[in-house]
Amino acid sequence: MRIYVLRLGHRIHRDRRITTHVGLAARAFGADGIIISGDMDQTVMNSLSRVVEVWGGPFDIKYEGDWRKVIENYRRSGWRIVHLTMYGLPLLEVIDSIRIDPSDKLIVVGSEKVPGVVYKLADWNVAITTQPHSEVSALAVFLDRLLEGREFHREFTSGMLKIIPQERGKKVLKLINDGGT
Ligand code: SAM
Question: Which residue's CA is the nearest one to ligand 1's atom 7?
Answer without folding.
Answer: 112
